[in-house]
Amino acid sequence: MKRLLKLGMCIMIAAVVLNGCGGGDSKIETVVYEGEINGTKISSTINYLGDRVLKQKTVSVMNFADLGITKDEMEQTVEQYKKLYDIKGVNYRADITGDKMTETTIIDYETADFYDLKAAKIITGAKKDGKILYVSYEQTVKNLESTGLTKK
């Protein structure tokens, strides 16, 4: 169960590293990154404007029995995530069917409180003063690619 919790946290942290302000493009764009990490299929959809990530939706599908996790352990993990992700701007849902779980996490960075996201270790701050101004699209893509996800 701890391994699964760490995997989820690593994915979210890898997906988001924060940077200073910038950007000047005026068109909202969408990109999708997909891949498989430790038997978990992951799809991450990013809506961004310039270098600023506006919203990110990550869907993970796993066969938890293949990972050596029981249904009870999986349900306990889901309850921990629900508590951890009970933050304004974050929508977390997990559906368990048989030995499979589909987990969907949507983060709206335009409404979320960066302090709360950082406290929950969903994001990390890269600035020395600790102020988080926005989520960097460029850095997010680098981190997704470093985990093995590829652009669709």
Secondary structure: number of strands? 8
Q: What's the mean pLDDT score?
A: 84
Sequence of secondary-structure elements: HEEEEHEEHEHE
Helix content: 25-40%
| Gap from first CA to last CA | 30 Å
- Unreliable spans are 13-25
Query: C-alpha Rg, in Å?
Result: 15 Å
Strand portion: 35-45%
Strands side by side in the biggest sheet: 5-6-4-3-2-8
Quickly give the structural class. alpha+beta
Largest sheet: 6 strands, antiparallel
Shape: globular
Number of helical regions: 4
Nutshell version of this structure?
The chain has 152 residues and is of the alpha+beta class. It has helices at 2-15, 71-84, 114-119, 137-146, and strands spanning 18-19, 29-37, 40-49, 52-63, 90-97, 100-108, 134-135, 150-151.
